[in-house]
Design brief:
With 196 residues, the chain is an alpha/beta fold. The protein contains five helices and nine strands, in the order αβββαβαβαββββα. It has a single domain, classed as 3-Layer(aba) Sandwich (Glutaredoxin), CATH 3.40.30. The chain has a nine-stranded mixed β-sheet, covered by helices on one side. The N terminus is likely disordered.
Length: 196
């Protein structure tokens, strides 16, 4: 009888570990930190002002080739879902200044809001967070728990409508990779073909 109980416990624990790894182990446990967003047009808001929307918060720089790869995908998501509850926000970590980034954003046709971020300040805000489900590489790996550092660029946080971090992505992402989790958080059930 004791062997059966031990075997049942082992099977239950193994199933639980597999299930939690696939779904993002600590989802819903870590709130996005408060931070000020100073946009290229001079508008100043806070990250918490976006609560009620699903937020795609992307830390990037103009000198980072993988960052530049994903910008058209983020613009595409912005165009498709801005009226459905998605807020795409870029945080430029460039030291060249807002005017330079504003010109660059215009040249590459970014229409979603872009804020300026100082690396040390952003690192102080985000790095202390722990146990964030994080996907590294090209997005095909299962999430593993990591801290909130934004040292590697691009780094993108997906934040739910209540301001909780759903996932952190390190490395370039395309629309196809991000869209399913964004749609799930926005509560969009219809097939993709109907909204494109």
């Amino acid at each position: 009888m004791k062997r059966v109980w031990v075997w049942l416990m082992a099977v239950t624990l193994a199933a639980g570990c597999e299930s939690s790894e696939q779904s993002g182990t600590a989802y819903g446990d870590i709130a996005a930190p408060e931070m000020e967003l100073t946009y290229l047009d001079g508008t100043i808001t806070k990250l918490s002002d976006l609560e009620g929307q699903v937020v795609l918060l992307n830390f990037w720089a103009t000198w980072c080739p993988p960052c530049l790869e994903e910008l058209p995908h983020f613009e595409s998501l912005h165009q498709a879902y801005r009226d459905k509850g998605l807020a795409v926000v870029g945080v430029s970590m460039d030291q060249a200044g807002a005017e330079y980034v504003r010109d660059f954003a215009r040249q590459v046709s970014i229409t979603y809001p872009v804020a300026m971020g100082a690396f040390e300040k952003m690192e102080k805000i985000w790095a202390p967070l722990t146990e964030i489900p994080t996907v590294h590489g090209f997005g095909s790996e299962p999430p593993a728990l990591a801290n909130g550092t934004v040292q590697m660029m691009p780094t993108t946080f997906v934040i739910d409508r209540s301001g909780m971090i759903y996932r952190k992505h390190v490395g370039p992402r395309d629309r196809q990779t991000l869209e399913p989790e964004l749609r799930m958080l926005m509560g969009i059930d219809e097939p993709l073909a109907q909204v494109h």
